[in-house]
Design brief:
344 residues, alpha/beta, Rossmann fold, Dihydrodipicolinate Reductase, domain 2, 2 domains, 6-stranded parallel beta sheet, 6-stranded mixed beta sheet, 9 helices, 31% helix, globular
């Protein structure tokens, strides 16, 4: 018997990607339901070669749902995830609402799959921030090999991480540049076309942004609380794909060749690292792909046991939708959930 899966936020970038990936990976679902707010009622979304009509979250009965993929923002998740979990569904939430709750596991399956069993406390599992997900996939096997002390990361994050309106703003501003029209900022505090913006999310008292704080807090929760991390998160005029420049300081010596070999054999990682023009991966190439791509591996001679690298991933997939579905697969493969008997 297959599972009944509900996708909340089905009309958004990540929701649509979740439906695509459920079909691509032949997820064992007998029924998939697309849900969103009342204003999206009746909107049609694709699920493989099928079309689903969106239903309203506000009056949906979750009593026979097994897994709920939640991608509708923090406020919606805060209100609805506990209700959905109470109805007996496991909620896999893509917002930041539950990531820092001690009773909610924060999961990247390649990194800390064993922690998924903790879902029984609240019935909720949190998906990490998109920039954190790809980072820890690369860090985990290296941490196992040589113990990471400190990470300094600068991100180059695509506009899709801020939603469809942000993608539309990049498109309209780029068009306005070429047509000599007025450039309007709505989604971003400054123009994004042909520019970069060193602010993602709100500023905190210490001068870091919330996005930078998320990377620090989530890396500690997922990987190791002893790791020190400093981040600078930058929005760049790219539609899909987050890139990261990462400097890592290890407790033990580790060579460039060892790093390359470890990452080549690590789950979720794909190393493309030729020291020649074009011998690296850019966000353009990673769009639509599942892997975290790693390039530019080299020694960081400014610290003892230092390595620098470049990593790129599709933020809508590994950073969000794919990771959520991998979590659902993990629950099934470990026999932590079973499908409810549905009424005839």
């Amino acid at each position: 018997m297959g599972y009944k899966v509900a996708c909340v936020g089905a009309t958004g970038n990540v929701g649509r990607e979740m439906l695509n990936i459920l079909d691509e990976r032949a997820f064992p679902a007998d029924e998939v339901v697309a849900l969103a707010s009342r204003r999206s009622l009746g909107v049609e979304v694709s699920y493989g070669d099928r079309t689903l009509k969106v239903k309203a979250l506000e009056n949906y009965d979750f009593s026979d749902v097994d897994i709920c993929l939640m991608s509708a923002g923090g406020a919606v998740s805060k209100e609805w995830s506990p209700k959905i979990a109470a109805a007996g569904a496991v909620v896999i939430d893509n917002s930041s609402a539950w990531r820092y709750d001690a009773d909610v596991p924060l999961i990247v399956p390649e990194v800390n799959a064993d922690a998924v069993a903790g879902f029984t406390r609240r019935g909720i599992i949190a998906n990490p921030n998109c920039s954190t997900a790809q980072l820890v996939v690369a860090l985990k096997p290296l941490h196992d090999a040589a113990t990471i002390k400190r990470v300094v990361v600068s991100t180059y994050q695509s506009v899709s991480g801020a939603g469809k309106d942000a993608m539309d703003e990049l498109f309209s501003q780029t068009k306005a540049v070429y047509t000599n029209s007025e450039i309007v900022n709505k989604k971003f505090p400054k123009r994004i076309a042909f520019n970069v913006i060193p602010q993602i999310d709100v500023f905190m008292e210490d001068g870091y942004t919330k996005e930078e704080w998320k990377m620090m807090a989530e890396t500690k929760k997922i990987l190791d609380p002893k790791i020190k991390l400093a981040a600078t998160c930058v929005r760049v005029p790219v539609f899909i794909g987050h890139s990261e420049s990462v400097n890592i300081e290890f407790e033990k010596p580790i060579s460039v060749d060892e790093v390359r070999s470890i990452l080549r054999n690590a789950p979720g990682c794909l190393v493309i690292d030729k020291h020649e023009p074009g011998g690296y991966v850019t966000p353009y190439e990673c769009a639509g792909e599942d892997a975290t791509y790693i390039s530019r591996i080299r020694e960081d001679a400014t610290v003892e046991n230092g390595i620098a690298l470049w990593c790129v991933s599709d933020n809508l997939r590994k950073g969000a939708a794919l990771n959520a579905i991998q979590i659902a697969e993990c629950l099934i493969n470990r026999k932590l959930i079973s499908a409810k008997k549905k009424a005839a």
